[in-house]
Design a protein that fits this description.
The complex is a heterodimer of chains A (about 140) and B (about 425). Chain A has about 140 residues and is an alpha/beta fold. Chain A is about 45% helix and about 20% strand. In chain A, strand 4 and strand 5 form a beta hairpin. Chain B is globular, with a radius of gyration of 21 Å. The N and C termini of chain B lie far apart (about 55 Å). In chain B, about 50% of the residues are buried. Classes of the chains: A alpha/beta (about 140), B mainly alpha (about 425).
Amino acid sequence: MNRRVTALMVALAAIGMLRILWLHFVSEPRNEPRRAPIDVRYAALRAVVSSGEAGYVSDLPAAVHLGEDAATLGTRMYLHVQFAVAPVVLRYDDARPPLVVVNLHDPSRLPDLMEQRGLELVAQIAAGLAVARPR
Amino acid sequence: MSILALLLSGAGLVAAGMRDRASDGIERGFRAALAIALGTGAWAASYAAWRMAFGTPGAAKDVVLALAGAAALAVFRRRLPAPAQGREPAPRWLYALFAAACVVAAAAFVEHTMRFPDGGWDAWMIWNLRARFLARAADLHSAISPAMAFLAHQDYPWLLPGAVAQAFSTFGESRMVPAAIAALFGALAVAVVTLGVARVHGARWGLLGGLAVVTLPCFATFASNQQADVPLAVYFAIAAALMTSARSRTELALAGFSAGLGMWTKNEGVLYAACLGIAWIWRTRDLRGALAFAAGALPCAALLAWFKLGLAPPNDLAAFSTRATILENALDWRRWAELLVLTARRVVYFQDFGFWVLAGVLLLWFMRKRPFSVLGTALFLACAAYGPIYALQPHRLDWIFRTSADRILTQLWPVAVLATMPALARTTART
C-alpha cells in the first residue's frame, strides 16, 4: 500500500511537471507574446502629473460599474496609467481636474476627443498619450 | 536594519511560541521557514500599524522590532529538546525527484516573470499599485482613495504591499523587488508543507507533500504573479501545521498569530482563521486552546478592524449588494446549479491542476466514513462558506468564479495537503 500510494503521487507529480514544462516552455512562447513593462509607455507621465488627482479620458471605455467586463483593453489601459502615475489618483472619465491624462487606443482621435471634452494640450507624451487641461 | 528586524522578530516569535529545542535538521528547517515567514509578516504588519498611527515609519520602527525580537530570543531560550518521533525515511530517488520538481517550478517562475514583468493582472491593479502608493506618498489616504476605480480594491488589507513598499524604500523601486518577494513566498509555501509533514511523519511523506504543492501546475504561475494568494496560503499553512502538532498553548497562539497575518494578507484570511478556530473547538472541545489561538490572532485582527472600520472604503461585494439582490440571488436556483456545474468542471481542470484536485476529491470519497480531522473540518467549512459567498455576491457568477476559483484553490491547497498526508501515512502504516 505504501509503495502504491508513493507511486501514485509520483505519477501525479510527473504529470504536473510535464504540464508545467509544456505551458511555460512550449505553449506560451508560441502563443503568448512577452509583455513590455507598463512603465515603458507611461513612466514619462510622472514628470508632468506628479501629485494629487488627475482626470482620465480615453477612446475606449473602462469597467468602473457593476456588471461591466473588467477584462477589456480600455480597462487595462486605464489601470496601467493608474499603476504608472501612482500616487496620483486618476479620476476616470473626468475632464475637469487641472490636469487630465488622455490615453488613446487610436492616436488619430486625439484632436476630436480634445475638442469633444473641452481640453487643450499640455504635453504630448507618446503616440496616443497626452496630458491636457480644461480650456 | 530592515532585514535584521525581519529575521530577529521572526526568530523571536518562533522562540516564544515553540519553547522546546529543535531536535534535528528537519525541525530546524521548519522553524527557520516559520521565522522568515512570520518575521516578514510582522515586519509588514508593524509597518501598517505605524503608518496608520504615526505616518511613514523611519528606522525607529525596525529598531523597535529588532529589539523586541532579540528580547524574545533571550527570554525564551530553549532548554529541553523536542521529543524525537518515529519517522519514515525517504529513498534517495524521491529526494532527486523533489529537487527536479523544484527546479522545474523555479524555471517556470523565472520564465513567467520575464514574460509578465509586472506580474499578473491583480499585481499591477491592486497589490503593487498599493505598494507604489505607500512607497511614493506620505499621505496614506491617497492609497485607498475612493476616487479610484473599484477594481483597485482599496479595502484590501496590505501585508504584501507593506512588505513590497518597505523593500522599495530599502532597495529602490525595481521590478525585481516584488518578484523576489513573490519567490520568497513561493519557496516558503513549499518548505512549510514539506518540512511540516516531514517533522511529524518523516521525510518520505514530507517530500510527497512537497511534490503535491510544487507540481500543482498553477502553483508556479500564481507564485510568480506577485499576488497575495501564495502569501495567504503560507500563513494559512503555518497556522494549520502548528495546530495539528501543537504540544502547548503557546504553539496554538503562534498558529493564531500566523492566521492573523493571513487576515492581514487578504480578506479570505478572516474566513480561514475563523474556520480553523471553529474546527479546533468542534474536533477537540479545547476551549482554552481556542482562546490561545484567538489571542495569537488578536494583534492582526485588531489591525484589520482598525483599517476596515477607520480608513477603508466599503468592499465592492458589499457596496454593490442590496438586500433585494442578495435575496434574489439566494432564491435563484439556476445560480446555485450554475455554481455546482462550475465547481465540478473545475475539479477536472487539467490546465491548472493536473490530476491533483481530482485525486484529492476521489481520496475524500474513499475516506468519507472516517471522522474529519481539525484541518479537514476547517477546509470543509471554508469550502461550504464559499457556496453562499459565490451565490449571493452581486457580480456575474461565471466571471467571478473564472477569475477567482483557481486562486482560492491555491490558497487552500497547501492546507489540503497538510490535512491529507497524515491520513495517507496512517492508512499505509496499517496495511
